[in-house]
Amino acid sequence: MKVFVTGGAGFIGSTVTKLLLDQNHEVTVFDNLSKGKEEFVDKRATFIKGDILDQETLEKNLKGHDTVIHMASFIEVGESIKKPVGFTQNNILGGVKLLEAMKNTGVKKIIFSSSACVYGRPLENPITENDPLGEQENPYGITKVTTEQFCKLYHHLFGFDVIILRYFNPYGPGELHEPETHAIPNFIKAVLAKKPIPIFWKGEQIRDFIYIDDLAYAHVLPLNLSGFHIFNVGTETGMKIIDVVKEIFDLVGYEVAIEDKGERKGDVQELVASSQKIKQQLGWSPKTSLREGLQKTIDFFHSHPSST
Description:
Elements (H helix, E strand, L loop, with lengths): L1 E5 L4 H12 L3 E6 L14 E4 L5 H8 L4 E4 L6 H6 L1 H22 L3 E7 L23 H20 L2 E7 L1 E3 L11 H10 L4 E3 L6 E2 L1 E3 H9 L7 E6 L5 E2 H12 L5 E3 L9 E2 L4 H7 L7 H14 L5
Helix pairs in contact: 1-7, 2-4, 4-5, 6-8, 6-10, 8-10
């Protein structure tokens, strides 16, 4: 299958690209490198430097592909509050331009990278795909909800096959965002540099952390799926942030100070996935335990000291 991966030079996109290539798919990576790095792109892929806001370039390069995996989104929640216009332009307008380019070139299948944030403050955990979408706390969440709706609209209007993957909390080797806002890489980098770890809410928040390789696998299973589908992608296991920190301490063999940052506006107390739907319909399940994934991530940052 010929797969067009937007944002394929990023943390998740580059991992998905490698897995697709390992399974003998033909891959085109389309990325403007504003967040990703060209050196992350597997050399077996065709790389095109381009922006999803450039519909003409999209259409030129989309022709002949079977599927789009769309991951070219801005993801930093805090940055979205500071720069709502930029997030709206890239994530929503860019998403619609991509859908239009797909329609105009006859590529009518999209796997969209969404987020558990669309649930807002969930009524209960674990969260199922049938739970209502909650009130959004930040522009990033609004962009994900809106792009999901546009994907659904193109399914109804133009017969697109749409698979929406709602990620919970991805982590793993190769996570080098600038700025880095995710907990696990920041915790590990602080520990390796023997600096205090900043923690909000005394680390009592509960999250569902999913290892990057397991998340990537969830993108290749629906390649032959038709229709409209939404899947949560998580481990169904909640972990307190403070317990993740203690696990990292145990793995490295020492502790560092914890910096209490108090409360933080917009945080949800608990987010845990029900992944029964993707397990039953696609046979997906996470293979990597948190401890194993943390060790691999620590090893990565050990071998990339400049990133710490």
